[in-house]
Amino acid sequence: MSRRILLDCDPGCDDAVAILLAAGSPEVELVGITTVAGNQTLDKTTRNALAVATIGRIGDVPVVAGHDRPLVRPLRTAPAFHGESGLDGPAPVVPDRQARPGHAVDYIVETVMSAPGEVTLVATGPLTNVASALRREPAIAEAALGLVVMGGAYGRGNVTQTAEFNVFVDPEAAAVAFGATWPVTMVGLDVTHQAACTEQVQRRIAGLGNPLATFTVEMLEFYRLAYRREKGLEDPPLHDPCAIAYLIAPDLFETLPADVEVELAGTLTAGTTVVRFAGPGVASRPEGQRHRVAVRLDPGAMFDLVVDAIERLGR
Ligand code: RIB
Ligand code: CA
């Protein structure tokens, strides 16, 4: 039976590929998409999710909008990497559907609580919706199969020296998410920076020769140029599909048990995920290492999954 997932995201180029990977892979069943402010404002991330669902001809998967700002701090977006639209590169796609009325937080709670032990939450944007859902209904921490987060880092950050964007934008929400009793799998920059989207991957996708492939390649080309300009990287890391790939093919990853806390107070360190791996001499909290942190990824195999998913959706 395929793994049922609810994806909370902030499309965003790499979120868009994560949506396509989830929708185009038989190993997982994408039951819903919720959107949050992050890479761009909520109206844009929601429109972009609808656009990706449209061009990916993703049927019967509701898109529900959530929080338009972090729990406490002001919103910080990332137009330098995803553009003013949040999905720059291809010509805008006019969605053939609308967002489902209601709020993402209610949708998350209702979806998880209606199917205890069946739904895994995947978050590839700031954790604002996830934290609010926990506060509205703490029992989702028991009812959900778990939470997979693209976010955080135990090495270097990508916004500050130590903080990764999704956690940096809403550290209070991340603290709530990692502080809940559910098992969290953190797919952080330490592995997503191994998922470099090469020109060879782009050529493979382009070679599929369908409108979805063209859309994806044009989006990736914008993203490539952005990373070259902003970070001096030739091959941009495609962060968010890694979180989905973990549920499709966990054997492509190595994860270690760890305790994860989030720094909130530091002037220079706010948004840092403080990761304590299990091991001798590690002072861990009573709840121990109930989380897992990804430390290794097979990027080639991960991109094979991405190309296969886009090929299936584009048929
Ligand atoms: O730090 C990378 C993460 O922040 C990705 O999810 C990207 O889409 C942005 O949301
Ligand atoms: Ca994202």
Descriptive account of the structure:
- It is a single chain.
- The protein is α/β, with parallel strands linked by helices and 315 residues long.
- It has a single domain (3-313), classed as Inosine-uridine Nucleoside N-ribohydrolase, Chain A (Alpha-Beta Complex), CATH 3.90.245.
- It has 13 helices and 9 strands.
- It has helices spanning 13-23, 42-55, 79-82, 104-113, 128-136, 140-143, 165-169, 171-179, 189-192, 199-206, 211-231, 241-248, 299-314, and strands at 3-9, 28-35, 63-65, 119-123, 146-150, 184-187, 253-262, 273-277, 291-297.
- It has a 9-stranded mixed sheet, sandwiched between helices.
- β2, α2 (42-55) and β3 (63-65) form a beta-alpha-beta unit.
- The longest helix is centred in the C-terminal third of the chain and has 21 residues, at 211-231.
- The model has no long low-confidence stretch (mean pLDDT 96).
- Residues 9-10, 12, 14-15, 38-39, 124-125, 240 line the site of calcium ion.
